[in-house]
Amino acid sequence: VQLQASGGGMVQAGGSLRLSCARSGRTGGSHTVAWFRQAPGKEREFVGRIAWSSWSDGNIYYADSVKGRFTISTDNAKNAVYLQMNSLKPEDTAVYYCAADRRVTLATTVSGYRYWGKGTLVTVSS
Hints:
Blueprint: E1 2-6, E2 9-12, E3 17-24, E4 31-38, E5 45-52, E6 59-62, E7 70-75, E8 80-85, E9 94-101, E10 115-116, E11 120-125
Parallel strand pairs: 2-11
Antiparallel strand pairs: 1-3, 3-8, 4-5, 4-9, 5-6, 7-8, 9-10, 9-11
């Protein structure tokens, strides 16, 4: 599975951005795609994830820090996963990564995901 995150940029506090994660390769079957972020000098942290399989369609979970502001969605025809970020705060500034695993997982840690894309930088100014 190959992943590529895009859509980062600079925005003022209170603004919005939509990140995209393009998937290619073996994307069929059970799958979990997660978003993580890493601020300067900090550990990479979980943002949210979406999991689907033949018996479950789009189970989504968010970190408390973004719940109510960020939304994960998919476009299966495009093999894309999106992260809509609203009401952005300066503390949301980070490099955002998408990660995936070819199974349904509840993982919220870096070690829980086998496949990673390069990140995209989001900068929120106050």
